[in-house]
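Q: Got a minute? One more chain.
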Amino acid sequence: MSTSFIDFRSDTVTKPTKEMRQAMFDAEVGDDVYGDDLTVIKLQDMAAQLFGKEAALFVPSGTMGNLICVMNHCGQFGSEMILGDLNHIHLFEQGGCATLGRVHSRVAPTQPDGTILLKDIEERIRMVTDDHFPQTKLVCLENTHNRMGGKVLTLEYIQSVGQLCKQYGLKLHMDGARLMNAAVALDVDPAQLIECCDSASICLSKGLAAPVGSIILGTKEFILQAKRLRKVLGGGMRQAGVLAAAGIISLTQMPKLLKLDHQNAKLLAEGLAKIPGCEINPENDVQTNIVYFDLNPSKVKIDLQTIAGIFKQEHGILMSASGKWKARLVIHYMITKENIEYFLEQFKNILEKNQI
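A: Always. Here it is, folded:
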């Protein structure tokens, strides 16, 4: 696909920076399955220190990272986890926790801010006292929350869930695919956001722009077992330092660009709000780099799937339509202010021609 496309589909489309490409070229490598790839070791040590955990493990993807963590916490037959009904693990990871991990999911309603109410978690906890039920072992959160438009879970909320988990002897896992976005939005140390979590998965290949990979975090014992699970799931990599080198740049250089991504997302949302037929509240709906908006079918006679096709064919713009009347746009370091202004201009022109 042409590099001239302006790509709003996701922050997963980010391409490695020139600095990353050079670091990959120069990377000192070994065999990571044997544990002697020095660049992977450097990345893992750096991540453990940055996020305040004893140890870290480099894995090929966020989906594998979440699966490993869930399986690690829920090794007992008949285990159950509690998570939001719009959680990425529940919706977009092919049900791997059930099909591969044999872990039952018990979902609770996801609130507009991406949280799960504490009472909803507590009501769903099932202990070993009744043989009819699975036994709750784990609670999973997501920060930032993808389906809720990149909403940020606050430190206070995460701590309250952590306290509840401790009360019942449960583990807490954080799907932190975009945790660095949350840390930047809250202006806090990322380690604070998972201090009370027993594990976390951090994606390097979204807004942090690495070509491949995620980091999972936990105790040394947890990561030792996670390494075994990574192997059986097909995630053991050999000269993985070539990839880890980019991940090091992701953690050291890319977070400073995320604030600009958030500002550009707000700029995009404010522009959309001014276009007749678009429905979005920039102040409430946009906190980080994800922008969801709706079209009002009573005001326009063209749907977003059609518009996405026009953008691709005529304007070199890629976007994701979530059905006919809702779309998600994601900002990343490859999207400039000028790109956003061009998108808004063309979008306004299309809608003006299709007003009811």
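A: The CA atoms of residues 207 and 337 lie 16 Å apart.
Q: Perfect, thanks.
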